[in-house]
Write a structure and sequence with these properties.
With 99 residues, the protein is α+β, with helices and mostly antiparallel strands. β3 and β4 form a beta hairpin. The protein has three helices and four strands.
Length: 99
């Protein structure tokens, strides 16, 4: 961009008046209406693939814990007895939860 060094320079006052006028002119223009979309409405229209499991019947064989296993009272996972970190009031806690 070319600069005209012979043109009169604007003072701070002139610059503030120019910017004040720009702000006033911006107020008179009507702002565009912002469209707000509800996130819940967007999510309701989106269906995950394979999400409808209402017609499915799941068959899982539940195996009781072996004598050398315990259920952690914190994370409720079944671990080997070698993973016991502490026992408190008959409840066992694994090394992962206590670590």
């Amino acid at each position: 961009m070319a600069t005209d060094y012979d043109a009169p320079r604007k003072t701070e006052e002139d610059l503030s008046e120019d910017s004040l006028q720009e702000l006033k002119s911006g107020r008179t223009e009507k702002p565009a209406a912002a469209v707000e979309e509800d996130e819940n409405d967007l999510a309701a229209g989106y269906e995950l693939p394979g999400a409808d499991l209402s017609g499915e019947e799941l068959l899982v064989q539940v195996v009781p814990p072996h004598p050398d296993e315990f259920t952690c009272s914190s994370c409720f996972l079944v671990h080997h007895r070698s993973q016991i970190a502490r026992e408190q009031n008959g409840h066992f806690y694994c090394t992962e939860c206590e670590g």
